[in-house]
Amino acid sequence: MMETTESAVPIKELPPKEQWRAILGELELQLPRPTFETWLKPTEGLRSDDRNFVVEVPTPFYVEWLERRIYQTIQRTVERLMGAPLEVSFQVRPDALAPAPTGPEDDAWLQGLQVAPIPHAPQSTRYNFKTFVVGPSNSLAYNASRAVVDSMGMAYNPLFIYSGVGLGKTHLLNAIADACFWKGYTVIYLTCEQFTNEFIGAIRNGTTEDFRDRYRQAHALLIDDVQFLGGKDQTQEAFFHIFNELHGSRRQIVLTSDRPPKSLGLLEDRLRSRFEGGLTVDIQIPDLETRMAILDFKARDLEIFMDDRLLEMIAKRVQHNVRELEGVLTRLVAYVKWQNPGVLGAGVTREVAARVLDDLAATSPRDQVDPQRIIQEVARHFRVTLPELLGKGRTKKVALARQVAMYLLHTDLEMAMSATDVGRLLGGRDHSTVIHGAGKISAEINEDSRLRQDVLTIKEAIFSVPNPAT
Ligand code: ADP
Ligand code: MG
Questions:
Q1: What distance in Å separates the CA atoms of residue 337 and residue 166, rounded to the nearest whole number?
Q2: Per-residue pLDDT tens digits for 79-112
Q3: Which residue's CA is the nearest one to ligand 1's atom 21?
Q4: Were both Cys, which of 24, 60, 203, 405 would link to 378 (CB 3.0–4.6 Å)?
Q5: Centroid of ligand 2 to alpha carbon of 170 (angstroms)
Q6: Which residues are CB-contacts of 321 (< 8 A; sequence separation ≥ 6)?
Q7: 30 vs 221, residue with greater confidence
Q8: Closest C-alpha to 3, from 19, 23, 25, 18
Q9: What angle do CA 369, 454, 411 make, to 5 degrees?
């Protein structure tokens, strides 16, 4: 996070470069992260006087985008921080005015594939409603999100969206932010982590009033991944107050989380019941048709063509979430571009796809999961001890945990241990018990969203890499 300027020196007396940094610090709080990263981070304060504030940007395209999309927000923030009605303008960095090298897009992109991650396409234009493929698994969340933008603060407030990883929560939240901008609303968009950091900073600097003021000025407050609020008393308290104030004045609030409000482990009951007071929707794992539609959409976007059989083949193999699906596509594209340098709109052959999928399966973390880890995560999730899980007890909670473990080990994960092995691992149970238990969960998981969520959360824990923020 960008540092805000020491309050001891009035911002007006700083050099323009530093003034702009302070302004960026404020803008970062108000804008969707991808917007900020893409469009504001590469800018610099050039000069300011008592009428003007000039900002240097990398290319002419920036001028157009900033003026069209977020000029109001910038202007307001500059005026507020500088304490004067300044006119903000943008100036293109001189070296950028030289003619652009030919064929920049395709080349840069190809190089990007070979040596480094694909350069950041402006995600703000990617994460919007138009690029969100709607199907039965997500139509509830999609429609609710649209309704929120259409009648800010009046339709569903708060809107609470939850799902497992990689199913489109952040995408939808960005889409809401994006649509709000077009309508001229002031939006604060941030992750729960950013919110917490801000708040802690405000306490440290004795500026909690400013902190709250800033939120009071927003039409909408969008917070991603609120599960990280759990367990932080003071932050919850601050959030509760801000929530109440905004909610009371009919400002729109949208929250996302990896689990439903009930399972958030919030210390504050009243906070949870506030969350539940609006509309809560979940996003489920997309069905085969939707996975195919998403794949098709993203492939076209990358100018890669695949026929239905190929789409189906991939979508059948990659079932867990959309991010995974994108991962496969990225690899495929890299492969195809590498095989056909310079060819636009290359097709993917079945052989190439099969090969990429096999590579993927071979390196998939799924194969390397330690069964003990799965058992531990299940026990932790259901709050039962290992001896209970492996023992003879049959209370509802313990029995459910045991069956979920059977399901994960025997059915769901690609490691697919034999029922006999699973039985042995789970306290010496008979293989028919395992088949029965795993089958029961398989049957119920599609009907019971709570159970589905339990399984998703456990899988996330199992596959989570050290950095849980993404
Ligand atoms: P989450 O926040 O739930 O973990 P994201 O919103 O980050 O998931 O989604 C992961 C990736 O999948 C993103 O690149 C997003 O654009 C894409 N994605 C998810 N759902 C859809 C959808 N329905 N249509 C198009 N892209 C999607
Ligand atoms: Mg997310």
A1: 26
A2: 888 988 888 998 877 765 443 333 333 323 222 2
A3: 168
A4: 405
A5: 4
A6: 164, 165, 166, 167, 285
A7: 221
A8: 25
A9: 50
